[in-house]
Structure prediction request, 425 residues.
Amino acid sequence: MTAPQHPYTHPALTAADPELAALVGAEERLQAETLRLIPSENYVSAAVLEASGTVLQNKYSEGYPGRRYYEGQQNIDQVETLAVERAKAVFGVEHANVQPYSGSPANLAVYLAFAEPGDTVMGMALPMGGHLTHGWGVSATGKWFRGVQYGVRHDTGLIDFDEVRELALKERPKVIFCGGTALPRTIDFAAFGEIAREAGAVLVADIAHIAGLVAGGAHPSPVPHVDVISTTTHKTLRGPRGAMLMSREEHAKALDKAVFPGLQGGPHNQTTAAIAVALREASQPTFRDYAHAVVANAKALAEALLARGFDLVSGGTDNHLILMDLTPKQVPGKIAAKALDRAGIVVNYNTVPYDTRKPFDPSGIRIGTPSLTSRGLAPEHMTLVADWIDRGVAAAGKGDEQALTAVRAEVADLLAAFPAPGLPV
Ligand SMILES: *Cc1c(COP(=O)(O)O)cnc(C)c1O
Prediction:
């Protein structure tokens, strides 16, 4: 008798397209054997993976549950309703739209709902930690709207709310975004809410990075303070690649119309299903433990890095993310990131606020703890992780490939004891 095949060995794919199957297998090994520190990445559960690989893929469903432009929605309507109801329960909101294809189109839908081309919009500048879609010039959101941008203070690395208020009252933006991609500190939604009300702007909390922390009670909720919540579902929330828009009932219609038919056609039902599964997981007590462990790990890692002479933007972290300025180590971010990759530690190079280097060759690296937490690593492992980063960055400076190879072996050795969710190896 042959042993039963592991469910994730992709037998049909291997038979039909061995070339592609081999690449998937290689990626599975890479994700199993490396320490993945990119703060926007994670490991979804086997259940989320399975949901996103179902025959829901085959179905067109333009419209919303009960109001579709295609027949045969008996099951799909229930799938989407489950996802919506779970989103409302997990985040405590009156309205949720689970159809946006990803975070960037979700944000575009927000502009479509509340602004006209040429209007002034406001967000955090990309090099300060904001997202492209918060009105940065190279993005459609900065080309079609007049983006005005706030930053963080040079001395503290923190948002200066006097500056934000002054800018908002002077520019009177239609929409203000708060949140970002490289913000290691708690977002003060109440302070933004006060400013937005004073300025008469629609306030959007983009919680793409921290949605899982909000759901798990490890970051304050934006709900009472903001008009709209935009989020991806695939970062700390640990769902499939997708997005959601949430609001009070008052904005429901505007947001729904903007997503469909304003911006999109048929929703990706297999993704909607996987979002529903992820939200069910996010409502469990174990998810609260995960969210708090993500933050505890990041704080422990920040302490260990500070003890090794690393310069952390804002001096540390409140959430899942650490932004390091490698200038004192005299190693550019990109050289460090590429060397760490060879050492089995996957990070991304990143600008730091007031960076004197170019965005494609910046001074910093950005790291985070969601993935390693999903594998079960705990604060007691973070000195080891900091040590590996320290050795990797030092080896990058000296071009010491042997040291990187040694770290890579140690990383794989530890991770073998912490199997990642959803992976066959
Ligand atoms: C990741 C992210 C997005 C965009 O999400 P995509 O799915 O990559 O389009 C938007 N806003 C913020 C703050 C993000 O971190």
